[in-house]
Structures are given as C-alpha cells and as structure tokens.
C-alpha cells in the first residue's frame, strides 16, 4: 500500500464527501426588504428563527459532492431564464419551513423553468412559496399569523417580482435556524 500524506487524503475525502444542498431563488433587494419587514413583525408576535435570506426554494435538499452540486447548478442556471413570480395569497402549512408563506402562482412559464432546473438534478420541481415564518404553530396561531400578514403589508398578496439570481447553499438539516448554512455559489439568470 502506498503512503499517502494525511492532508492530501483528508482534502480528497472532503472534496468527495457528499453533503446536502438546496437552491434558492433570491429576491430583488426592494422585495427582500419588504418581506423582511413582514417576517420581523410576525416573529415579534409568534417567535421563530430569523429568516436570514428571504428566498423561494427552487430545489429541495439533495445529496451530492460539492463539485457535482456546483457543476450541475451552473448547467441548470444556464438552461433557464429569469423566473417571474406572482404572489396569489398567504397560506399556512404543517411543515416547519412553510409554516406561514406566500403562495406563488405556478403558471406555465414558472412551472416550465423550475421543472427544467430540477431535471438537471434528477428531481421534480418544488411548490414555489416564499416563507414568512418558520415554526410549529397551532391552527389558531397560524390563522392569527395569516391575518397579521395583511396588517403588516396589506398589498402583499397582489404583487409581482422577478427572480434573476439563484444561490446554491450547503445545508445542515439539524440546524433549523439556517445560521450554519453556507452559500456556495450565486449566479445571475438571463
């Protein structure tokens, strides 16, 4: 057996070790600030972790090596154009990361682009949503939170924006605050 330097073996192992990754659609700055105001208002009343980066999940958790994740992400971003988003209503869900969210209209153009993106990873596309509050609330608390969204921003269910940037994040499922999640790459869509 050949001698292998520990650092070389360690570096190669690290590069070949699969991790969890997600792809997020990043919001234009004015939209991000608007969403942050709503999320902070909801957190003040209902608790929950800060949503560090307001985003729309384009690809759910997938396990790949970093090299494979980056290469596939680059190819997928080159294959799709910008993603037009139309908010239709405030919704709730039993899922922690979708507790209170804005539902994005899955029209044909949006579906087509997100499906193309997901196919590069051999996945199906996500239900597009924009989370406003992470947590595990009771049905009554969710109803109150849903109503509070309209108080914080009465026009939030009738606006449009375009996602022109996607980010690839390495995620750690055990960290529900997403504080330890790290952005690996951000690309502009054309």
Automatic annotation (TrEMBL):
Protein name, entry field: Putative RNA ligase/cyclic nucleotide phosphodiesterase
Assigned keywords, A-Z: Ligase
Organism of derivation: Rosa chinensis
Supply one GO molecular-function term. ligase activity
Q: Supply the InterPro entries for this chain.
A: Cyclic-nucl_3Pdiesterase, Cyclic_Pdiesterase
Q: Which PANTHER family match?
A: 2',3'-CYCLIC-NUCLEOTIDE 3'-PHOSPHODIESTERASE (PTHR28141)
Q: Which GO BP terms sit in this record?
A: cyclic nucleotide metabolic process
Which SUPFAM superfamilies does this entry report, sorted A to Z?
LigT-like
